[in-house]
Amino acid sequence: MFKEFDKKDNYDLAVIGAGVVGVQAALLAASAPYHKDVVLIDSKTASGALMDGAGNDLSLGGPTGLFSKALRDTSKRIKVDTLRGMGLREDSVWNEILNSCVDLAESNAQDIVRQLDYAGVTFMPGFASFPDGGSTKSLMVTQPGDAAATGAPSTVATVQAQHILIATGSSPFRPGGIPFDGKRVFDSDSINTLSFLPKSMVITGSGIIAVEFAKIFRNLGAHVTIVIRDMSPRKALQKIGLDTDVAATLVSDLIRSGITIERGAQVGDFTVPSNPRSPMTIELVEATKQRGQTPGPRKGGLATQVKCDAYLAAVGRKPNTDNLNLRSAGIQVDEYGGILVDCRLCTTAPAGNVYGAGDVLGRPFLASTGSVQAQAAVQSMFGPGLERQLDATTDEGDAIDLDPETCPVNKLGASFDPASLAANPLAFPTGVWSSPEAAWYGYTLEQAKDSGYENAGEGMALYVECLRGRVFSPNGMLKLVYDKTTSRILGVHICGDDACELIHYGMELVKGQRTLQDLLGSLYSAVTYHEMYRIAAQNCLDEVGARKRRAQAGKVVANRMRKRNQQD
User: What's the whole-model pTM score?
Assistant: First the structure.
């Protein structure tokens, strides 16, 4: 159990929001070397809709995509066609899937509770906001009563704290005109409440979340249609940072999987029948080029409607800042509602004691960057942590300024505020948890040339070129972007099994300024995907031979797929 809330004169830190960012900040501040008195404030009804039968919040301490990751893992282990072939009812099949997801989420939540309890973090349920009058040394916490069951009204408590961290996360953006109901029409959070296994699914969006859910539901046996505004799905993926070949590989896989892609379109009117077993009809119209335009009909020969059991909108997210009374506290936000912070993650609150971290600041909306921001914010409040005290010099031997008033930076000198993260391709790795996975770190070829590496080049290795790929998973590729003058590796881009794990080795290669020669001289354990790094380096230096090897490898993959299709 949590350490229960007991009213104190003052906490060292009050954290608003118990997602992955808020929990990491609370644990860090409560542990060595800080040992601060921390209260963590959160309402389970605001954390998402992933609950167990007793009403416990299973998203505690988990990322926004916890449900999708659990569902993805389940879709790889449970064979829906096999269960159906055994004569199981549709609701029984879905319950099997959902129970598996709940088990995974519950295990994570229970471990978070254990960590918070061990660290001595006080937990307070409720909705926090700043009081009227401009003070940022206290918070008003509304704790909803249970009027329906016991008649108990809501109560309001005051929490005093020297420092406050806002980590309230984000919510899905909901386009107008779509009848979201949490039953058959969902956003990327409310999809957690899906109560049946759909046989057909329509998804709007061309980003990471849309691609992930498209493959999840296709693996679960649903016919999936993706509706995108762009005429080219590959270019749509490139806009969010994917390398052109990685994007092309992902799109090819979507099509090969049987997923339909409606290009240059957006959804129009919805016809949702009262009978939940009857499919709903969604009108497809031509995508508008600007906001406020009236969409017109699609051109001849293109689909004008699609029938489906369920619909999902995955078209972006927006920070959760609406109900915090930020204006009274003097905290400014941008046009999208993201809290404005400086390089120390400090907000515009006049007292200088309110910080922000994670999705509440806006892009990039990643749990990984949010966790690093949480660490940087705590460091800004209370001084350097263990990692800075144990390593107070740079790799070049220069002393690191441990003054807490300086901006926290990583070893590459990059700050963690949203503007710095967005402008720096070397700030963080990105992963797409689709099937296959995709991940990247560093420059694309175009970014490298735009950044002054005029002699940049690239080379790739196919999964089928390494032993493990040939045996277990031949579809995929790993690309290196490098400087031809120095052979220094500038970027790594992967699409295939375990890409989200493999990218961290690539990240260290880029950060460590390693060269192609370093890879060629390295010894990798047999039957691992890491062999592709050496093969890609060889292909960078032997472009003619690389093209011939890839052509032969492509034939191997094609023959294997042909035989597999014949067996099916």
Answer: 0.87
